[in-house]
Specification:
heterodimer; A: 325 residues; mainly alpha; 1% strand; globular; B: alpha/beta; Rossmann fold
């Protein structure tokens, strides 16, 4: 009995799926600091956060949807399409709030269509959103003929997405933090969050308990689409140019972050905070490897290895958490 | 019960109709916007048909009021996703319009050798009067291209040649385009000479930002730059840095690299995707006059960078000419029996402050340089 209790206490932290990521962040920070002391500077932190913010905003939206049991592969395309729409509207002389609302609205609309195709069409969201990704990308390429679209007007309001706060730290960090906190709160502290986990865990049970499964999934799709649109606006505000290939591959990075952060591919399990921390970890590793002078071509292979290792750890931790939690 | 079984098996008719309607509306909207923003066709009575056959393939057919005399297929590994090919497509189309030739441009959305071979075979099946093709992978294209040439369809290579000696090479009529390795080498050489002229020494350190790792053309450019430094006896070879096609990542990666290697004085980039963030980084960090960009390919922003002294030089391979000239050479061959020269170079041309004026004209009229 005593042994059981000790074991239970020792393994209690495993309930927190973010723990693995937090440990990884600390361990990597120590390694990178050892390799190059410049790693522990405010500038480096600002670089990591700038990188993490765009990826993280998408990753928290995607993780929310994954917890509800669905995928969204169209986020990279929405990232490009929504910011391009905003640039066009601003260039045409529309006021800033209209352009922002239209961009976020496009993200929401794509989320709605993804939900409709998945729910009404009864095809897996993996396929539905893969199709959506190509459809949007195809339209973007056809319309722009492959050329980047540049913002031609001065828009001081863009500062709300791109200004620097202190030193090199950008306001995008606050958007990231605010969105992650809001979604985390919804997930862990509201009835709706409970439904999201129930729907992802077992739709049939959730339905039997009176949860409107379709509504929950639709809202989650819309959140995912709008998060991608917000990230697109942030990137656009900073560089004032949108390439039709912007955001290619972001969908997979977002899903990888969600998984590293503890989301299950089967739905029902995972946390928004974990995905946010994982986005930070991914950016930390990218920056750290460069500062350490590692051959740059190794980054992607390293990320693949990390994903596999963390995936295995998460599975073990998840099981232990279930047993002792 | 029966309704549950039916639902489980698939959609109901209403559901199926709903999905189809959504898809059609989305596609129609896409084409409507595409048409609205597409550049106006040159002749007033001209008939322009833009057909996107698949999401992965763009086929642009420019028809003419008069019956086209010949049909040429222009098959390239560069699709609409890469802005560099915009002027190429324009050049090929304009040559077709001027000569009364139908030019069918085909390029994949995503780089794919298999696509290139498939596209060649479908083009050959259409029995065109000539095929213009990028020999992006001479091994994959060797057999299919030889077959096409045996069938009597003339072939001109463009952008990427068959690198083997003439007697082993695929027997195409000629090649129009630059040598990617030479483009990099000339750029590296120019930068070294520029530094010697301006500062009386070589750059202390340099880095090459590569935005598509493993892309043979870009890797060759990078190798050219590295060899130029090696041959100049710089004592170091600029390192290759994977900056990705994502502009935020490119910016932050370059920033981190400069922090780890503060002696870097030149950032080489291999296209506008890398040059834009590098230029912005120099401005943001107040590194003007200390760190310089040298790049391949041009656009209006890079021209401004040359004017401002942030960009030392850019290599242009004048893409419009790579679209226009092969169509003209094919026309001369098919109509008058004029054999094109073995190699018609369209670059590398080093664009620095002295050549700004003329290149501005090229960018304004063709969309790139």
């Amino acid at each position: 009995m005593a042994l059981k209790r000790i074991e239970r206490i020792a393994l209690a932290p495993l309930k927190y799926r973010e723990l693995g990521v937090i440990i990884s962040i600390i361990v990597f920070a120590a390694i990178f600091y050892y390799l190059n002391p410049q790693f522990a500077t405010a500038e480096t932190l600002a670089t990591i956060v700038s990188l993490a913010a765009e990826l993280g905003i998408i990753a928290v939206g995607v993780s929310f949807l994954m917890i509800a049991g669905e995928f969204d592969l169209s986020v990279g395309a929405v990232f490009a399409a929504s910011s391009m729409l905003a640039v066009w509207l601003l260039n045409e002389g529309y006021p800033f709030p209209v352009a922002v609302a239209a961009a976020l609205g496009l993200g929401a609309l794509v989320g709605l269509v993804n939900a409709a195709v998945t729910i009404i069409g009864r095809i897996p969201s993996f396929i539905a959103t893969l199709g959506m990704m190509w459809l949007i990308r195809g339209i973007l390429l056809a319309v722009t003929k492959g050329f980047p679209v540049r913002l031609e007007v001065e828009e001081p309001m863009l500062a709300i997405f791109s200004a620097t706060i202190i030193g090199d730290l950008r306001v995008s960090a606050l958007w990231f933090l605010a969105l992650a906190a809001a979604l985390h709160f919804i997930l862990v502290a509201t009835a709706f969050g409970n439904w999201v986990q129930a729907v992802g865990g077992s739709p049939a049970t959730a339905r039997a308990l009176g949860v409107n499964v379709n509504l929950v999934k639709t809202v989650a799709f819309v959140i995912s689409g709008m998060s991608a649109a917000l990230a697109g606006l942030i990137a656009m505000a900073r560089f004032k140019v949108v390439e039709p290939v912007a955001g290619v591959g972001l969908e997979l990075e977002a899903i990888a972050s969600a998984v590293i952060g503890g989301c299950s591919l089967a739905g029902g399990v995972g946390t928004v905070a974990g995905a946010a921390l994982a986005a930070f970890l991914v950016s930390e590793i990218r920056t750290g490897l460069i500062l350490a002078g590692a051959p740059a071509y190794w980054y992607i292979g390293f990320m693949g290895l990390l994903l596999i290792v963390v995936g295995i750890i998460n599975l073990r931790v998840g099981r232990a958490g279930v047993r002792y939690g | 019960m029966s309704s549950r079984v039916r639902r489980a098996q698939g959609f109901t008719t209403t559901q199926a109709i709903a999905v189809v309607v959504i898809a059609v509306i989305a596609l129609a909207a896409g084409f409507a916007v595409g048409r609205a923003t597409a550049p106006a066709p040159a002749p007033a009575e001209g008939v322009e048909t833009v057909t996107v056959t698949k999401t992965v393939t763009e086929t642009v057919t420019v028809g003419e009021a008069r019956e086209p005399e010949f049909t040429f297929y222009y098959i390239s590994h560069g699709g609409p996703a890469d802005p560099w090919w915009g002027p190429v497509i324009k050049g090929a189309e304009l040559a077709g319009q001027l000569l009364g030739v139908k030019v069918v441009y085909q390029g994949p959305e995503k780089f794919s050798i298999k696509w290139l071979v498939d596209a060649l075979q479908s083009a050959a099946a259409a029995k065109p009067d000539g095929i213009i093709i990028t020999v992006t992978d001479y091994q994959a294209l060797d057999e299919p291209l030889r077959k096409v040439i045996e069938q009597g369809i003339p072939v001109i290579a463009v952008n990427v040649p068959d690198p083997r000696p003439p007697d082993e090479r695929i027997p195409y009529l000629g090649y129009v385009g630059q040598d990617e390795y030479q483009a990099g080498y000339k750029l590296g050489e120019y930068v070294i000479k520029w530094f010697q002229r301006e500062f009386g020494r070589l750059p202390k350190n340099a880095v090459i930002g590569i935005h598509e790792v493993g892309h043979v053309g870009l890797e060759l450019r990078a190798k050219g730059i590295q060899d130029a430094f090696r041959d100049a006896g710089a004592g170091y070879v600029p390192e290759k840095l994977d900056i990705t096609t994502d502009i935020t990542k490119a910016y932050e990666i370059l920033k981190s690299y400069l922090r780890a290697n503060p002696d870097v004085e030149v950032i080489f980039t291999l296209g506008p995707l890398g040059a834009h963030p590098a230029m912005q980084l120099i401005v943001d960090e107040g590194l003007q006059g200390k760190v310089f960009v040298a790049t391949v390919d041009l656009d209006d922003k890079i021209l401004q960078g040359i004017r401002d002294g942030i960009v030392i030089a850019a290599v242009s391979q004048q893409p419009f000419a790579q679209g226009f000239l092969p169509v003209v050479f094919m026309y001369l061959y098919v109509k008058y029996g004029i054999v094109p020269p073995e190699h018609v170079p369209t670059g590398p041309t080093i664009i620095d402050k002295n050549l700004l004026g003329i290149v501005e004209k090229q960018i304004q009229t063709t969309g790139g340089a």
